[in-house]
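Subject: Re: docking follow-up (zinc ion)

Dear J.,

Thanks for your patience while I sorted out the input files. As discussed at Tuesday's group meeting, I've set up the holo structure prediction with zinc ion included as the bound ligand rather than trying to dock it afterwards. The sequence and the ligand SMILES I used are pasted below, so you can double-check that they match what you have on your end before we go further.
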Amino acid sequence: MRNTRQRQVVLDIVRSTNTHPTADWVYEQARKVIPNISLGTVYRVLGRLQEEGLVMQLDDGSRKSRFDGHPGPHQHIICERCGRIADVPDVVDQAATERVQQMTGYQVSAHRVEWFGLCPECQQGG
Amino acid sequence: MRNTRQRQVVLDIVRSTNTHPTADWVYEQARKVIPNISLGTVYRVLGRLQEEGLVMQLDDGSRKSRFDGHPGPHQHIICERCGRIADVPDVVDQAATERVQQMTGYQVSAHRVEWFGLCPECQQGG
DNA sequence: GTGAAAATGGGAACGAGTATCATTGCTGTT
DNA sequence: AACAGCAATGATACTCGTTCCCATTTTCAC
Ligand SMILES: [Mn+2]
Ligand SMILES: [Mn+2]
Ligand SMILES: [Zn+2]
Ligand SMILES: [Zn+2]
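The structure tokens for the complex came back this morning:
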């Protein structure tokens, strides 16, 4: 794994925000620093960062992936109106995991929780 | 909402299995009954059934949606090798929901849990 | 039956993401 | 510092699940 300028810029960007941005947003930001960086490179770098565990990839219910430069055991709540994503602590404990394992026979390696609702801002505007 | 042959066939198919099939699989099954049914119609009907709450739409991590003709409060565990999806009871309770609501300020309307792991069959084959 | 509105079929279009490949530029070695 | 090897990049073509379009068909309230 080589330490390229592109890799460093993408990592910095995805770590600089807590908005869980799309690949396209990361791309737009990256172009401000490296104007001719390609979208393919952004996807390639984000994919590699995810494999290395430096980035989480989220699904907000739309077709676009969203990325989180602050990995670690936490979950997400997504506003159904504006798409805003906030962090939420994990509510699934070891006992629940073992229960699921017992019941299904699956060997559980991970879980993911998404909450949906209205963010405070969107609750205001009828 | 009109009760068309296409709608009835798609609903029957998606209710006839517990494999959480893809739109394409539903389409192939439907063609056995209505040979010239179009894929667009299958998508349209599935989308409408979901709006009506008769069908759940799942995300298995791949690019394809999967559909569940047995909606209601339950969750899913997905095999990371073969993609098989099994049902799992919900481990998230009212207390957890209220805690999340308090902490984030979001008004929670739904949640989704996906477990990942190896199904019993895939644990066998090295 | 008749008419208005909704649904369909077929095919084109869309778009997020992936693949390809010639070129570039890290990095370890001399 | 030059070099060699090879991983990473930029540009662009491609994939394919899903959505859109519209002329035609079908449903259903009357
Ligand atoms: Mn997060
Ligand atoms: Mn299910
Ligand atoms: Zn919002
Ligand atoms: Zn399996």
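A couple of observations from a first look. Residues A 79, 81-82, 84, 119, 121-122 surround zinc ion (ligand 3) (CB under 6 Å). Residues 1-2, 4, 6-7, 36-41, 44-45, 63 of chain B lie near DNA strand C (CB under 10 Å from a C1').

Let me know if you'd like me to rerun anything.

Best regards,
T.
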